[in-house]
């Protein structure tokens, strides 16, 4: 999967958590459109 990320607006910091956690990345592409990439991630 290729993401066209020009600028990261925000992201979650879940370092050190050991469970299923939500992860989110808000970013702008090179055309200035805003996108959200969100998932629940199992860090175990």
TrEMBL record:
<protein>
    <submittedName>
        <fullName>DUF2790 domain-containing protein</fullName>
    </submittedName>
</protein>
<dbReference type="InterPro" id="IPR021245">
    <property type="entry name" value="DUF2790"/>
</dbReference>
<dbReference type="Pfam" id="PF10976">
    <property type="entry name" value="DUF2790"/>
</dbReference>
